[in-house]
Amino acid sequence: MSKVQGKAKMNEKRAVLPSDIREAFHNAFGEFWRWRSGTEPVVAINRGPWPISWLCDLVLLYDNEQLPNDFYRDFRVLPDESRRDLKNNLSADQSYYTAALCFRELIRLRKVRREFCHEQSRLRYHSRVGHDRCADQHRTFLQKTVRRN
Asked: What is the CA radius of gyration of the chain?
């Protein structure tokens, strides 16, 4: 097998999303909703904990498979109204592939927000007045981040 054939083989998508990965992906979405503090949540799959962002990468290796209606409805209630484009993308293509792309972006945004608020906290902006100021600065920061991407 030549290097070109090997690379093409690596880029091929697998046919069907296995049920254990599908179930873990659904569980990851629940973990994301419950994630309030600390490090990125993990889900169990293949005898080990996987960060939810890694699970999104794993889902991207499979062919586009339609999301079940109940999961699609749950996913449409995304907690981040600043990224309406993600909801629009998912409306246009209601697949696990698109859901994984959108979900990965939401995870990235949550990490960015946490870093930002942690830095603000470190700078002692979290008095009651400081917390409101942090929220305003955070909105401005997110708008700049979204525009860059």
From this structure: 18
Token pair listed for 93: 């293509």
pLDDT value at 1 more than 60: no
Provide the pLDDT confidence category of residue 52 given band limits of 50, 70 and 90: very high
Compare 139 and 59 and report the one with higher pLDDT.
59
Say what percent of the chain tops pLDDT 70: 64
Query: What do you get for the CA distance between the two ends of the chain, in Å?
Result: 38
Alpha carbon distance 104, 91 (integer Å): 17
Count of other CB atoms within 10 angstroms of residue 29: 19
E strands of 1-146, at which residues? 42-45, 48-51
Structure-token match 């629940």, residue found: 30
Instruction: Count CA within 13 A, CB hemisphere, residue 54.
Output: 11
Among residues 29, 145, 25, 142, the alpha carbon closest in space to that of 77 is found at 29
